[in-house]
Amino acid sequence: MTAALAASFMTVRVGAKTLLDQVTLAIAPGEMIALVGPNGAGKSTLLRVLAGEIAPQAGTVALRGRSLKSYSARTLALHRAMLSQHTTVAFPFTVADVVRMGAGDRGGTDALVASALAEVDLTAFGERIITTLSGGEQQRAHFARVLVQLACGEAIHGPGLLMLDEPTASLDLRHQLDLLEATRRRRARGVTIVAVLHDLNLAALFADRVVVLDRGRMVADGAPAEVITDAMLEQVFGVTGAIGRVPSPGLPFVLPHAMARMKQHLQVAAPRSPRP
Q1: How many structural domains compose the chain?
Q2: Amino acid 20: pLDDT
Q3: Which of 223, 234, 215, 184 is nearest to 18 (CA)?
Q4: I want to staple 163 with a disulfide (CB 3.0 to 4.6 A). Which of 82, 117, 145, 175 is the partner?
Q5: Distance CA 16, CA 10 (A)
Q6: Range of the structural domain that residue 114 is part of
Q7: Using one digit for the tens of pLDDT, what is the confidence trace for 209-235?
Q8: pTM for this predicted structure
């Protein structure tokens, strides 16, 4: 089976700094991948390279077996939809107008827009000016826009690629779960999903695979139960954990106790018991 998305030995540099260092990754159609790692690990850079927003200095990226750089911008938009980490709307568009932008210049999308607004719990906000909404509500509106874009591409080319950069960062708990359930529904019909997630518990709950980046390198790739471990938390995040297991189906959950360096400091600084 041809990978939905494949990258080989990708390297990205800015000046003397290496943001990605020979990252190789293959993603199967209908698979959900969570990219995790500390701040500055290269997660957003990797997502932007996979989306075709920036070109690597070395390495190749292929979408459905075809070089990513061979796609025109218009054609690429029909194969993949990207929700960026920060999206700013400077003009007084309504929420419905912003969501409709996901369809580009295609007409007859009112039903798609209404469906997307309902899915993100913003039906009552369609005529509101988007800048009057809270940060979390704006994030949900932009997610609805991406869902419309994805649906338009799917109607032409079949299930596409959904790419999300920290999609839950500004959302409350309920809407975090709602958003990820929406991605799960699309995965069930063959959409491939790549998401940058800081919440390791959400990554464990929703992803088929977790890819861990650290200082531009891929240091782990596998099922959540294999990757999210106490050793990984200490090595990559510098945090001592307490990885528990949900009894069924045995997914890991993370409850950090202390920074690893702090733990070491406390051990060194602890007074010794007097000798008898």
Answers
A1: 2
A2: 97
A3: 215
A4: 82
A5: 16
A6: 5-228
A7: 999 999 999 999 999 999 999 999 999
A8: 0.89
CA-wise closest residue to 26 among 60, 70, 69: 60
144 burial (CB, 10 Å; 0-12 / 13-18 / 19+) is: buried
pLDDT at 108: 83
Q: How many residues does the chain have?
A: 276
Calculate the average pLDDT of the chain: 91
Give me the sign of the Cα torsion angle 193, 197, 199, 204.
Answer: positive
Q: Which of 60-74, 145-159, 193-207, 234-248 shows the lowest mean pLDDT across its residues? A: 234-248
Distances (CA, A) of 228 to 45, 58, 196: 22, 30, 15
Q: What is the per-residue burial (b if ≥16 Cβ within 10 Å, else e) of 178-194?
A: bbbebbeebbeeebbbb
Q: What is the CATH number of the domain that holds 205?
A: 3.40.50.300
177 and 239 belong to one structural domain: no
Above 80 in pLDDT, residue 130? yes
Distance CA 112, CA 116 (A): 6
The 10 Å Cβ neighbour count of residue 221 is: 16
How much of the chain, in percent, has pLDDT values that exceed 70? Answer: 92
Tokens representing residue 48 in the block: 């932007």
Give φ, ψ of 126 to 5 degrees. -55, -35
The amino acid sitting at 68 is: L
* Alpha-carbon gap, residue 171 to 174, rounded angstroms: 8
Where residue 5 falls (left for φ over 0; alpha for ψ -120 to 50; beta otherwise) is: beta
Does 86 lie in the same domain as 26? yes
